[in-house]
Design brief:
By secondary structure, the chain is mostly helical. It has a domain of 86 residues: Alpha Horseshoe (Serine Threonine Protein Phosphatase 5, Tetratricopeptide repeat), CATH 1.25.40. It contains 13 helices and no strands. α3 runs antiparallel to α4. The longest helix has 24 residues. The radius of gyration is 20 Å and the shape is globular. The two termini are 35 Å apart.
Amino acid sequence: MTAWGAAKLFHDDAAHVRYASVYGAGLNELHRYREALGALNDAIDTAARNPDVAYPSIAVATKIDALRGLNEKKEALALANTALARIPRGDLYSHYYQLLTSRGLIYQDQGDLPHAIADYHAALQDATRIDYWRGVCETSGYLARALGQNGQLHDALAAVNQAIEANKCIPDELYFLPQNLALKAEITQKLGQPKQAAILYKESTTLIDAMLAHAPTSNVERFVLTELSDVYSCYFASRIQQDDYNGALSVIEQARGRH
């Protein structure tokens, strides 16, 4: 029997919804979006059949992200709008934050930067209100990227600095830090500070190297490489833009040593 088949043996609907949500979220993190939808739809359907089970916010938010991963943006946006209308914001700030962030990513994919920025700002307020530092790290980074794409470089720099500062409150969770350092480097370079950008890129790739060196399994190592490999690409492009070909070659060698 598969793990998901075993999960369906649960008689407690609330427990089943929780398990299915977590299981689907795990598959989603691995970019196995179609498989994730099976578990997430089961969680949502189970909750809908039982009025005593709480609204499955985690499953819904993860389904939005899975649909986005499958490039089904119209369906993802419709689900996000429905969910945001369904949840009372004051009672579920953490879930409302996640839905706003997910919708913001869809808007950003569609090039609708004003709406993306508005959703990220609102999500960031909710995450800050409940001291959800991981959420602050994540959403401030998204906000910085959107602001940078919108030409608001100084605002983007302030946002990414907020993300980096928030990470100090959760020092054991470094996943977002390399990306945010690299994003700060990109913004800093656009603001005419190439030397500072080089320092930040170096900090970012050094941190990735440390994360890979301490990865508990080969699967975790592959996941980190997949998610953060673009940092090396951006660092390489930065060195080329500065005519630092020896530095660019060093970045290639560093990246090769990790693949």
